[in-house]
Amino acid sequence: MEERVKYLGAFISYIFKQYSKDRCSSIAAELTVTSLLALVPLTAVVFALLAFIPSFQELGQQWQTLIFKYFVPGTGETVQSYINEFVTKARGLSGVGSLMLLVTALLMMQTIDSSFNKIWHVKSNKSFVRTFLVYWAVLTLGPILLGSSLLITSYIQSLPVVSDVVSEHGQWLTLWLPFLMASVAFSIMYYVIPNRKILIAHAISSGVLTATLFEIAKFGFGLFVSSFSTYQIIFGALAAVPLFLIWIYLSWGIILFGAEFCHGLEAFELTLEEKRQHPFIEVVAVLLFLAEFQATGKTLDEEQLKQISKKGKREINIEWMEKLVAKGIAVKTQDQSYCLTKASDSIDLWGIFQVADRRFPSSSQIENAELPEQTKRQLMAFSEEMQRVLSDRLVVSNHQDSPALSHLQVETHR
């Protein structure tokens, strides 16, 4: 049970670190501006496409009302009225103006695509023509599928048996239907957009998580809008605009967090596996901390190891401490703390190699290790010469202004 809790904590910490590392907050802000600019063009394109099909002509308003009612808390009706006014004016544009609206809508989709691929650290290999065709298919088929779903839903609800159920459990349907719609939409988004193969289970679990966070945020934001009216005094009739911007930003933040979660379901497992395959690097990391404490005349106990791990410096496996003790490189004192048995510059790399189960990481594993750059260069050199040189020495050199271990160098004794 304790291991599961540690695993969950490490996973959550990994997701938040990746969210910060990938600058998701800044990306959410960029997508907010892009969404605001593309909202009217996108709505106009959807309305225009629905108007081409006679059965769908009256569904545009239903679709818009549904979206703003269930997915824009507090300010939905006000924003919807503004959107309708802008869309009405957009319908009077010339052919060139309409083309610009379409281009703006496509650019928004391209921005979303690019943002997701940054999280997965992949580049889109699709050609411009193929990308355009995919976006165009989404813009055309999306409204048609949406209109079809609304027609089917209306037809099913009109059936006598179903209408009785709807009237009896209408509140339950109102509560769960938006959640299910959002879960499906987010799951499809996480499965389709990244330019790599995504497991369906990962996409679905991420979609459900995002929909859950979305519902929580929607409830909290709606509560804020209804409870605090100071913004209305400041902005007056335009109060809905800044609130709408904040909500779009929060929404994109949640969506990007879900994307990081989806990516993390795969990447975190690989990270753990990679760490388990790097015993040599882990032993070197342990020696770095022991040498750092030795330089200040201190020993390192298990509680300090836990504190170092909590601060995110590196996860230290106590197993390597015990192996260093067994090898005679370190010693365990009476107060259950650890220290080196000799100066760090007299510890040979071959001895470390033996402690690490005679396994050595590849060049790429060394490059990705959380070690000082000079240490990485040392390990690279040892990797190349370990068949010829068996007595390389670890030499610790400290900055004059800091007793902490900062560099490792290799001296070859011939």
TrEMBL record:
<comment type="similarity">
    <text>Belongs to the UPF0761 family.</text>
</comment>
<dbReference type="GO" id="GO:0005886">
    <property type="term" value="C:plasma membrane"/>
</dbReference>
<dbReference type="Pfam" id="PF03631">
    <property type="entry name" value="Virul_fac_BrkB"/>
</dbReference>
<dbReference type="InterPro" id="IPR017039">
    <property type="entry name" value="Virul_fac_BrkB"/>
</dbReference>
<feature type="transmembrane region" description="Helical">
    <location>
        <begin position="27"/>
        <end position="53"/>
    </location>
</feature>
<feature type="transmembrane region" description="Helical">
    <location>
        <begin position="92"/>
        <end position="112"/>
    </location>
</feature>
<keyword id="KW-0812">Transmembrane</keyword>
<feature type="transmembrane region" description="Helical">
    <location>
        <begin position="200"/>
        <end position="225"/>
    </location>
</feature>
<keyword id="KW-0997">Cell inner membrane</keyword>
<keyword id="KW-1003">Cell membrane</keyword>
<feature type="transmembrane region" description="Helical">
    <location>
        <begin position="231"/>
        <end position="250"/>
    </location>
</feature>
<keyword id="KW-0472">Membrane</keyword>
<protein>
    <recommendedName>
        <fullName>UPF0761 membrane protein FLL46_23335</fullName>
    </recommendedName>
</protein>
<keyword id="KW-1133">Transmembrane helix</keyword>
<feature type="transmembrane region" description="Helical">
    <location>
        <begin position="133"/>
        <end position="156"/>
    </location>
</feature>
<feature type="transmembrane region" description="Helical">
    <location>
        <begin position="176"/>
        <end position="193"/>
    </location>
</feature>
<dbReference type="InterPro" id="IPR023679">
    <property type="entry name" value="UPF0761_bac"/>
</dbReference>
